[in-house]
Amino acid sequence: MADEEGNGLEDEQSFSCWEQLLPDLLAQILARLPFEERFLSAPLVCKRWNRACKEEPHCWTSVDIEPWFLARVQQDFWWEFECDDQIKWIIHEVVDRSRGMLQDLRTMHCCDSSLEYIAHRCPKLVSLGIRNSLRVTDSSAMTLAYKCPLLASIDISDCYNISSAGLEALGRHCPRLIRLKRNMLRNSDRIERNKLLARGDDDEALVLSRSLRGIKHLEMKRGELSDEGLLHIARGCSRLEYLDVSLCAKLSAKGLDAAAGMLEKSLKIFIRPVLPPKQTLPDLLWVFFQ
């Protein structure tokens, strides 16, 4: 009986401690929850938590929607076109709750209207990830560049409707931008089916070398980058510390070595593509007929 009374007293004291927390402190604690729990579950606990999740911007300074989205795709067998409207609504809701305090956002399948909504209402945005956003174009990317000058990191991988013009705007209007992920899949089959993919990575590399000279982390995996484009990057982006060009089939050992030599002072991590062994056709035929 005494143990039960003791446990009940401890529960009451624990509850009173939560009740005594200031709203902004409670919001900062709730901000550590995964997105789905913060967005759907925590507001149902009590009225105080509901207010913190919906009215305290400190609860929404950093948001990662990507794990939740990927889980939904696996569980509910979502197709991309089926989730666009829901992703759009979620992004708008998160931006509204942040009240201009949003600094870090990771999502997928964003569209032009959502990106412009973010740009106009999140001036403190520092890090943004919108990979696999096929409906994002240069227009909204330029708006983002104009409205979010504090941007330091962006992931626009597999955003095929953003061209070198969008990259140039980001470089010119976001002087703090030091981290760029631009991993693309530009194989010939896809380019033949969609002319929008026919832009070469070398053009983008030239823009990067001119507009993003202070960049320190660059990823351009799986693309059509050639030795010429890689050397443009090496000449213009002399502060690079991390460079990933894996799975870029057009690069040669000579070009890779030349770029590494030009970036020798700053480059700490250089992830190269795995090149095929140096064997000529006559050599292979000679081995075959032995």
From TrEMBL:
Chain ranges of the F-box domain: 22-62
Pfam families tied to this protein: F-box
Superkingdom assignment: Eukaryota
InterPro entries: F-box-like_dom_sf, F-box_dom, Leu-rich_rpt_Cys-con_subtyp, LRR_dom_sf
Protein name (Swiss-Prot/TrEMBL): F-box domain-containing protein
The species this protein was found in: Selaginella moellendorffii
